Amino acid sequence: MNTTPLAALNHIPPHLHTIADYQKQAQLHLDAATWANLEGAAGDEYSLNNNLRAFADIQLLPRHLNTFAGANTQIQLLGEQYPHPIFLAPVAYQQLFHPQGEIATAQAAAALQAPMILSHLSTTSMSTLNQVSGAAKWFQLYWQGSRKAALDLIFQAQHYAYQAIVLTVDAPHMGIRDRERRAAFQLPAHIRAVYQSSVNTTPLKENQHPLFDGLMQQAATWEDIAWLLQHSPLPILLKGILHPADAQQAYQYGAHGIIVSNHGGRILDTAVSPIQILGTMRKILSHDFPILLDSGIRRGTDIFKALALGASAVLVGRPYIYGLAVAGALGAAHSIKLLKEEFEVTMALMGTSCIKQINSSYIYHQNS
C-alpha cells in the first residue's frame, strides 16, 4: 500500500489551518452519535475541559539571541531515534471515522514519521497494517483477565515488528459517558475489534457484587504486571498513570516507561489533568526514565510545555482522528503536520534548538 505523499498535503482546503478547524469540519462528516462517541468524555466532562484549560494556563518564558546551527527535533526513546516527539495515541474502532480506519492512520503516520500506537480495539489486524511500510508501530494492550492471552498478543506484535507494548491500566471499566448515552451511541454491526475477546467471569453467588466481585476480578494487578514484564520480549509502558506512588511503583517493578494520561477525560471525571501532575512525576523518577504524556494536546505550544515539564514525548488522539474523519489519510497526515510545524516554530521562538534544551526554566512560575 502506498503511503500518503507529502506533496499531497499542499492540496488541503485552505480553511483548515489548525486542529480546531479540523474539529469543526469533522463534525460535519460524522453522524451525531459517532460525534458524541469521539468528542464525549466521562460524566460532566470536567476532566476533558480541564485538560485543555490546564495547558492554556501555563505561560512560557522565551529566551532570545541563541544560535540555531544544527537545530533539530530528534528524540531518543527505548533505544530508538525518532525525528520528533509526536506519537499517535491508540484510538479504538477507527473505521467509525473513516472507511479505511487504521490503514489510513498508518499511511499518515508513515508520511509524517509519527510512531503509531495500534489500539487493542483496532478494526484492522496487525498483518494487514504491515502492508503499510515506513510507520514505526507500538501495540496497546487492554488486560482481559488472562496472562496467557496478554502474552500471546505481545508475541504476535513482536512477530509483526512492533517495537513496544502500551498496557493501558486506567480503564478496567468503561467510564460513564453521559453525552454518548444521550446520543444512544452503539457500535454499528459491521464494526468490530479484531483482537477483542470476551472476558470470562465466574457465575456470581447471591451476595456478590456484579462489578467488584465480577468484572474487577478480571482487572490487572501489580503481580500481573511483574509477571508480564518478566515474560515479555518487548518493552512495556504503563498507560494511564496519574498518582506519583503508582509512577514510583511502575519504575520499581521494572516498567520501561509510563504514559501520564487520564484517557482524554473519558474514564473518570474530575481526575487530575496529566499536565498538572507531570512535573511531580519527573522530579521523583530517574531523569532518563521515559515519561510520555497525553490528554489535551491541541497546539504545538502544548507539546513544548509537556516536554518542558518533563515529558519524553507526547501522544495525540482526537487531533489526528479529526483529520481522519475529514479526509482519511491525507487529513490525518495534515493534522500531524500542523502540530509538528507549530512545535518547530515554538521551539524557534523559545530560543531552543534541540529537545534536550527544553526544560522547566522556560515555564513561568509566578512565585519564583
UniProtKB/TrEMBL annotation:
<dbReference type="InterPro" id="IPR013785">
    <property type="entry name" value="Aldolase_TIM"/>
</dbReference>
<keyword id="KW-0288">FMN</keyword>
<keyword id="KW-0285">Flavoprotein</keyword>
<keyword id="KW-0560">Oxidoreductase</keyword>
<protein>
    <submittedName>
        <fullName>Alpha-hydroxy-acid oxidizing protein</fullName>
    </submittedName>
</protein>
<feature type="domain" description="FMN hydroxy acid dehydrogenase">
    <location>
        <begin position="11"/>
        <end position="368"/>
    </location>
</feature>
<comment type="similarity">
    <text>Belongs to the FMN-dependent alpha-hydroxy acid dehydrogenase family.</text>
</comment>
<dbReference type="InterPro" id="IPR000262">
    <property type="entry name" value="FMN-dep_DH"/>
</dbReference>
<dbReference type="InterPro" id="IPR037396">
    <property type="entry name" value="FMN_HAD"/>
</dbReference>
<dbReference type="Pfam" id="PF01070">
    <property type="entry name" value="FMN_dh"/>
</dbReference>
<dbReference type="InterPro" id="IPR012133">
    <property type="entry name" value="Alpha-hydoxy_acid_DH_FMN"/>
</dbReference>
